[in-house]
From TrEMBL:
Record has DNA damage as a keyword: no
Name of this protein: FHA domain-containing protein
PANTHER family reported for this sequence: PROTEASE DO-LIKE 5, CHLOROPLASTIC (PTHR43019:SF23), SERINE ENDOPROTEASE DEGS (PTHR43019)
Domain FHA: 32-87
Pfam families given in the database record: FHA, Trypsin_2
Transmembrane portions of the chain: 179-198
Length: 565
């Protein structure tokens, strides 16, 4: 049975109408015109949406071929792009396609409600594949006072297959053996005694490193250290962090789930729709329940994320971001099928289903006010790391963090700890808040998820398992830059003539970073860590901007305000 379409849906993704949804009667309209003129069905702001023409274009439904649609460009000044491809005259579109009006102009998504099963979203071509799921780099909304976690879902990176690496290892081993025999002969002639002593070591263990490190420019300064010197002194102190977490019910330790509602479609099929609850006027949260009590739902959890940290004590304390060490204190990354959702509101007869659907919004799990359909009292829910592993640069051994992280109540900073038999060399810390100024050179170190992976192949020495091991190892990226601006948050209880609603951050001109850099150190020209890399924001028509938390918030977690004068 074919799906009966009821309405056209226009979801505005960027521009002055961002996050708004417009719907139009499917039977009534065969065309949806869009532009800045008042005569258009989809009208854009005549002053602020300057990239849009007065009669920019239209979406057309083919009356002779059901479920066939096209977008038509009315010779607009800046053109139309469908999924980032320029439209010449007209182009076929499908529900789910993104349409941009002019390069850098507003973007909206064309859809149908309900969307017919036979119309699947077209496959998008990705610029570059990356593996794993780097930590959400808490991107920032254009308003400037919130962190934006849309960067969160990194595409899977296509790595080298195990068999491919094994064949490369065999070939390399044969070539190395021939070269080694010649080298041994020369060494025996020149240094026969020394060569004999080391003869048994050759061939005992062979490692292949496959890497494509980004080229980092070395910029020398008149005073202080170069980025190359800073990296050389701190590479072994900057660590790679992998983590996952779940939300639990503290009285019993049960996992907490987001409840879904089975909804019967017109064609008889059943679709599970996420449920939400209005806790107060304008305040919405996901409807939560215990795993054993939720018939259909999904866990409030995350896995496969990564970030950066740096050693701050010989005993194994590592500083990083709060959204790395305790991610439940930051915006939750809802699954794709969580929106639109069903909303429960308090009515005269109790909780009722609202006709308004819930669109995408931001929610911090640790700040939840309701559990089920009742307000919470006391500490009922808690986040719990399912794993948090630390790996040193170019090392395949993972070290699990011990105990609970120390988390800042003021900023995006936390400290975790690993136990090692040896003492560690910490990064030098310096509270530079009083002397920092725009334009000062800095160096950022970390593990951006977009950077090519590095693999190590090792032959096993275990008689019970002779299979070669192919292991991905972290390889730190060094990025020089400058302080772009100093943002000051308003102090509690104090009036300020100048402050940023965004908060207390150092704005950086460091663009060669990305998701996974979160929690990495920001060094001054003397090699002291003065900040913790935290977030970024970017737009199609603007330069990417990154931000760091002043190190003073990390020093507070260590019980002191200053380490290096």
């Amino acid at each position: 049975m074919a799906t009966i379409v009821d309405r056209f849906v226009i979801r505005h993704l960027t521009g002055t109408k961002a996050n708004q949804v417009e719907e139009f009667d499917y039977k009534k309209y065969t065309e949806l015109t869009f532009g800045r003129a008042a005569t258009n069905l989809v009208r854009f702001d005549p002053e602020r949406d300057s990239a849009v023409s007065r009669e920019h274009g239209k979406l057309v439904r083919d009356t002779e071929q059901p479920l066939s649609f096209s977008v038509v460009d009315n010779n607009s000044r800046n053109g139309i792009f469908v999924n980032k491809s320029r439209v010449i005259g007209s182009a076929v579109v499908q529900p789910g396609d993104e349409i941009q009006l002019g390069n850098g102009g507003p973007v909206f998504q064309f859809d149908l409600n309900p969307r017919p099963v036979e119309l699947m979203m077209s496959t998008r071509i990705m610029d570059m594949a990356v593996s794993g799921k780097p930590t959400t780099e808490l991107s920032l909304a254009e308003a400037g006072n919130e962190l934006n976690d849309t960067d969160l879902m990194a595409p899977h990176k296509v790595g080298l297959g195990k068999q491919t690496v094994e064949r490369m290892m065999v070939t390399e081993r044969r070539q190395t053996t021939r070269t080694m025999m010649l080298s041994v002969a020369v060494v025996l002639v020149l240094l026969s005694g020394l060569g004999y002593a080391f003869r048994d070591k050759f061939g005992e263990r062979k490692t292949i490193v496959i890497t494509n490190k980004p080229v980092i420019p070395v910029v020398k300064t008149d005073n202080g250290l170069t980025p190359e010197q800073i990296a050389s002194a701190n590479t072994s102190k900057v660590v790679f962090i992998e983590f996952g977490y779940k939300l639990t019910y503290t009285p019993t330790g049960d996992d907490i789930y987001h409840e879904y509602m089975p909804v019967k479609q017109r064609d008889g099929s059943i679709v599970n729709v996420a449920m939400y609850i209005e806790t107060s006027p304008g305040k919405v949260e996901p409807l939560l329940g215990l795993k054993r009590n939720v018939a259909v739902g999904k866990p409030i959890a995350m896995a496969g994320a990564s970030g950066t940290g740096f050693v701050v004590s010989p005993q194994g304390h590592i500083m990083t971001n709060r959204h790395v060490a305790a991610a439940w204190n930051s915006y939750y990354d809802f699954p794709k099928d969580a929106f639109p959702g069903v909303l429960l509101v308090q009515g005269a007869k109790g909780w009722e289903v609202s006709p308004n659907l819930v669109q995408e919004f931001r929610w911090v799990p640790s700040e939840t006010q309701f559990f089920g359909r009742k307000p919470m009292s006391g500490k009922v829910i808690e986040g719990e790391n399912t794993y948090i592993d630390v790996t040193f640069n170019k090392n395949e051994q993972r070290f699990p963090a011990q105990g609970k992280p120390i988390v800042s109540n003021k900023h995006d900073v936390a400290i975790i700890k690993i136990d090692l038999p040896e003492t560690l060399s910490p990064v030098k810390l310096r509270d530079a808040d009083k002397g920092i100024a725009a334009g000062q050179p800095i160096t950022v170190m970390g593990y951006p998820g977009i950077s090519p992976d590095v693999f190590v192949g090792e032959y096993s020495s275990d008689f019970a398992n002779r299979n070669p091991q192919i292991v991905k190892v972290p390889d730190v990226t060094v990025t020089p830059g400058n302080v772009g601006k100093i943002l000051r948050g308003q102090s509690v209880g104090k009036a300020a003539a100048y402050y940023s609603e965004f908060g207390d951050y150092y704005q950086l001109t460091v663009n060669a970073t990305g998701s996974g850099n979160s929690g990495g150190p920001v060094f001054d020209i003397d090699g002291n860590a003065i900040g913790i890399f935290s977030a970024s924001t970017s737009r199609d028509d603007a330069t990417r901007i990154t931000f760091a938390v002043p190190i003073k918030y990390g020093l507070e977690l260590m019980g002191r305000r200053q380490v290096v004068e």
